[in-house]
Amino acid sequence: MWDAHTGDAIIRPFKGHTNLVMSVAFSPDGTHIISGSRDHTIRVWNIHTGDTIAGPLLGHTGSVISVAFSPNGTHIVSGSWDCTIRVWDIHMGNTIAGPFRGHIYLVTSVAFSPDGTQIVSGSWDHTIRVWNAYTGDTIAGPLKGHTDSVTSVVFSPDGKHIVSGSGDCTVRVWDANTGDAIAGPFIGHIHVVASVVFSPDGTCIASGSWDHTIRVWDAHTGNTIAGPFKGHTDSVTSVVFSPDSTRIVSGSQDYTIRVWDARVGNTIAGPLTGHTDSVMSVALSSEGTYIVSGSRDHTIQVWDVQTGNAITGPIIGHTDSVASVAFSPDGTRIVSGS
After folding, report:
1. Nearest residue to 253 (alpha-carbon basis) of 299, 191, 297
2. Residues 191, 202: contact at Cβ < 8 Å?
3. What is the rounded distance in angstroms from the CA atom of residue 103 to the CA atom of residue 143?
4. Most-buried pick from 62, 70, 276, 293 (CB within 10 A)?
5. Sheet containing 95-100: which strands, arranged edge to edge?
6. Smallest Cα–Cα separation from 208: which of 241, 238, 164?
7. Per-residue pLDDT tens over the stretch 294-321
8. Strands across the sheet with 32-37, in order?
């Protein structure tokens, strides 16, 4: 964990996992961190001491690829290579729901609905499922339409819709309650869609692709609002909207980060250069003024959104690729998984 402004390591590395850390996230109140690992476990950490306060949480029989907190911060959802999803109590450390069975291939992405009552999962089996977070019952699904692996899923801000990105090069929007396809496939990308995200106002979707471009879509019609945004010279690995929905930040395997006008696709800042290998993950601070990036060059950097200047970093400490980065809710800390 790093100070977002100075780049200083706030505390010693959090040690306990015995294999790669695949996913990290802050709790909604910023007091805890969760991590999922290829050692098949999840851990919950105290951000002040680095101590494990729950875990290792045991149950999965394969790598834990994706973890997320419930909106109230009391539960964790995890998706695994063992094809299942589990829900855990953060305080007790036990499975309170699951394993949710239905996917027939590894689960790549999981997320809670905004009200915490539902979970969405995407899988290499080409499908999406919506689950009751308490019982594990399938609410909707399997949602079929994609013809390749589902790489990214997320709820809309109002919880009514789901957006998915896939290796079939398309984006689709689904009704979260019925599972009906309500928009899509959004066609335009010519390679794997690696990352999808709703705008905070829920009207638009941004997608980043291995075809080196970003597109912005109307969430209701699937029409291309802006794009393709061209500038990156390699795969786009991560996209995120600014809090006011006017800008998009992207990270790429071309070692750079770019900030785009979400409406017209102009580069507002960038390419932000400094990393010496692929940028694997980008995130914006809650007020939208800073970007954090994690890279295969083993480092983290913090950037000013307006100027594109590197204000902190490279932050050094990891000894391998940084796969996931996130800001704490108050913007003072960064968590990284490697």
Report:
1. 297
2. no
3. 11
4. 293
5. 64-69, 75-80, 85-89, 95-100
6. 238
7. 999 999 999 988 888 888 889 999 999 9
8. 21-26, 32-37, 42-46, 52-57
Angle (CA) 117 244 4, round 5°: 85
Calculate the alpha carbon distances from 180 to 141, 143, 188, 205 in Å. Answer: 9, 8, 22, 18
Burial 277-286 (b: 16+ CB within 10 A, else e): ebbbbbbbbe
Average pLDDT over residues 254-278: 86
Q: What is the length of the chain?
A: 338
CA-CA distance, 59 to 225, in Å (whole number)?
44
Mean pLDDT of the 177-187 span: 87
Sheet holding 300-304, edge to edge: 279-284, 290-295, 300-304, 310-315
Q: Does domain 1-101 have CATH number 2.120.10.30?
A: yes
Instruction: Name residue 7's amino acid.
Output: G
Cα separation values, 130 from 4, 48, 55, 162, 328, Å: 35, 35, 26, 9, 27
pLDDT, residue 305, reads 85
Residues with Cβ < 8 Å from 13, sequence gap 6 or more?
A: 50, 317
Q: What is the pLDDT of residue 266?
A: 84
Per-residue pLDDT of 127-165, as tens digits, reads 999 999 988 888 887 999 999 999 889 999 999 999 999
